[in-house]
Write a structure and sequence with these properties.
Elements: E1 4-7, E2 10-13, E3 18-24, E4 32-39, E5 46-51, E6 58-60, E7 68-73, E8 78-83, E9 92-100, E10 115-116, E11 120-125
Parallel strand pairs: 2-11
Antiparallel strand pairs: 1-3, 3-8, 4-5, 4-9, 5-6, 7-8, 9-10, 9-11
């Protein structure tokens, strides 16, 4: 099990940028696939991005491709989500999640993740 704490959310104008961070506890961070998900008011939680254990394999939701970048620093036990060209429809609570999986594997299914952070609010004004 790993404990996750997100930070970096806030209020930004459309077209702006934010970088979310997710700090993980434990000594085996590099054994976990990490993912970012989001939930807008009145909507179900949806996949945003995922990154494999070493960072060599990435996957993005179509809605964020070309605008968001997921990365990780295993020495710092942290995963990031750089969000550029933000749109009002990106407004949501953003969650990071972790699952223990083999190398070179990622998953976009939230049911596949075992550990979740508490979320950080991102609000994009028009």
């Amino acid at each position: 099990q790993v404990q996750l704490v997100e930070s970096g959310g806030g209020l930004v104008q459309a077209g702006g940028s934010l970088r979310l961070s997710c700090a993980a506890s434990g000594r085996t961070f590099n054994s976990y696939v990490m993912g970012w998900f989001r939930q807008a008011p009145g909507k179900e939680r949806e996949f945003v991005a995922t990154i494999s254990r070493s960072g060599g394999r990435l996957s993005y939701a179509d809605s964020v491709k070309g605008r968001f970048t997921i990365s990780r620093d295993n020495a710092k036990n942290t995963v990031y989500l750089q969000m550029n060209s933000l749109k009002p429809e990106d407004t949501a609570v953003y969650y990071c999640a972790a699952v223990f999986l083999p190398a070179r594997v990622v998953t976009t299914d939230e049911k596949g993740y075992d550990d979740w952070g508490q979320g950080t609010q991102v609000t994009v004004s028009s």
